[in-house]
Each structure stands twice: as structure tokens, then as C-alpha cells.
Design brief:
By secondary structure, the chain is α+β, with helices and mostly antiparallel strands. β5 (120-122) and β6 (127-129) form a beta hairpin. It has one helix at 3-52; strands spanning 59-64, 72-79, 92-101, 104-109, 120-122, 127-129, 136-138, 143-145, 157-160, 163-167.
Amino acid sequence: MSERDTVSDATPSATASESRRGFLFAAGTTLTAIGGVLVAAPIIGAAVAPGLLPEKDKWLSLGASSNWTPGTTVLVKFLNPGGAPDDGVTRENACYVRCIEAGKFQVFAVNCAHLGCPVEWFAQSRLFMCPCHGGVYYEDGSRASGPPPRGLFEFAWRIQDGALEIFSGRLPGLQEGT
Ligand code: FES
């Protein structure tokens, strides 16, 4: 075999190897980029979505503020305004509105601060009780006994044009510092 034959045999092989390496590098880079987008998209979406909700979807009217009788606590059901019509029952939510006096309220999330079971209001004992593990809260939402580490979470509220509105753009929780 001449030197010329050896050179001419090695060149196509090296080119094919480099081509294969280049293809694998490009494929690996592309798959890594796709994986990165798939991981990052939900995180970015969750971070920015609340800020994208129109302001009208964040404050939800629960009706005239004069509808509530001072000294009472009432369960109010509502649809999450940021949801889509085909969300079905997952769009349904509820809160307890406590009217302390005319124009002065507390609005509690129904979910227990322990593991999230819906609590129930007992007007006679003036206590919220959780059916799951026996958590008990006073009427002002503070923890009375049981496993909950804190009181009930509260919605921010305001009176706007005579209506009681709650900030419903995000469910109340520890992230709100409530
Ligand atoms: S979920 Fe309410 S006490 Fe555990």
C-alpha cells in the first residue's frame, strides 16, 4: 500500500468521525436546551402568572358590605376569578367572613393551617373546628388547640364602592406573611 493510499483512506474516516461527533454534540445541546425549557417554563410561569392577572381579577366582590350582621361569621362560596370556565369544581373556593362591626371584617381561608382540611364554623361555641385531626380555632382565627401550628390564614379585604372585596389573586398562605 503506498503512502498516498493510506492518506486517502484516513481522510474520509476522520471526516465521518468529526461529522458524527458534531451531530452528537448538536443533538446533545438541543436536547439539553429542550430539557431546560421544559423544567424552567412552569417555574417561570408560576412566578410571573399572578402578576399577569388583570387587577379586576385580583379583587373579588363578595357583595355589599352592609350585607353582614355584626357579630356573625358566614361561609361564602365563590369562583376563583383567575380560573378558566373548564376548570370545573377546582375553580370553586370558599371563605369565612367574620363581621366584627359595621365596616370591620376578617376573612378567613377555609383550609386548616395544619394540612389543609376545610374547617367548620360552630356559631354556638364560636369556634372553628377541623374534622381531620381536631384542630380548633377561636372566632378571630387564632389557634386554640390541636396540631395546627398557627391561626387560620386570612384574605386581604377592602371596602370598595360599598362592596366588601377580598384579594383573590392568590390564596392566602405563608407566602403572604399572614
Ligand atoms: S388538617 Fe386540620 S388539624 Fe390536621
